[in-house]
Amino acid sequence: MELFFLCGLILFTLFVSVSLSYLVFQKTNNKSSSMITVNTNNLPPGNMGLPYIGESLQFLNTGRKGHPEKFIFDRVAKYSSDVFKTSILAEPTVVVCGATVNKFLFSNENKLVQSWWPDSVNKIFLSSTQTSFKEESKKMRKILPNFLKPEALMRYIGMMDSIAQQHFQSGWENKEQVTVFPLAKRYTFWVACKVFLSIQDPKHVAKFSVPFNDVASGIISIPINLPGTSFNKAIKASNQIRKELLAII
Q1: What is the rounded CA–CA span in Å between residue 150 and residue 160?
Q2: Which spans of this chain does the record mark as coiled coil (predicted)?
Q3: What domain range includes position 214?
Q4: Is 123 among the domain residues?
Q5: How many Å apart are CA 149 and CA 196, to the nearest integer?
Q6: How far, in Å, CA of 32 to CA of 181, rounded?
Q7: Is residue 18 located within the same domain as residue 83?
Q8: Are 155 and 98 in the same domain?
Q9: Global pTM?
Q10: N or C: which end of the chain has fewer CB within 10 A?
Q11: What are 93-149's pLDDT values in tens digits?
């Protein structure tokens, strides 16, 4: 049991470290005429890559090889800068690395910088037109801490232990060799389904995980909505998830 949670903690730490090592942000200046002007002299060094595609292929290729951070580290070394420009998934992007810059960004959110979602993500997750992204972010920040308070976490311990035991029995026991990462993801998703949706049945969780995996793959794919593409599968999976959630509600 201790070994499993240690592996899970290591995986979670790696995920958070890589995620926080770069924060993607875009600064736009909306004029009354809906024209956008950018002062290229203030942009950091970098390469925007091919038209529309940008450097998406290089970014996705490093991810498929299991080293997504290589895309970041290679460019930091190439440009000798912790800040560089690129184009990923059809979006002009600035990537920043390091604690100092990330602290600056996080402390100036909705002041100097603003959170945003690429158009490709908005196509996968249809957002409400009644509220802005800023308002939705505030709501989420108010809701999530309730699930992470010490009192709440104490209530989850028994449930997490029960799911862990079932998880070990179904995925770990009597196996000569196991691949930890997908099993850890399965366990995490199982716990999330129980906490947020009150779903604990393994068959229901497994069925629910299929469209979620399609969505996860589609988010980090080139946003070409043609039959058979990862992006198209993600849009269909998102609609399926929405129907499932409405049925639960």
Answers
A1: 15
A2: none
A3: 138-248
A4: no
A5: 15
A6: 49
A7: yes
A8: no
A9: 0.62
A10: C
A11: 889 888 888 888 888 877 887 777 777 787 887 765 455 666 666 677 677 777 777
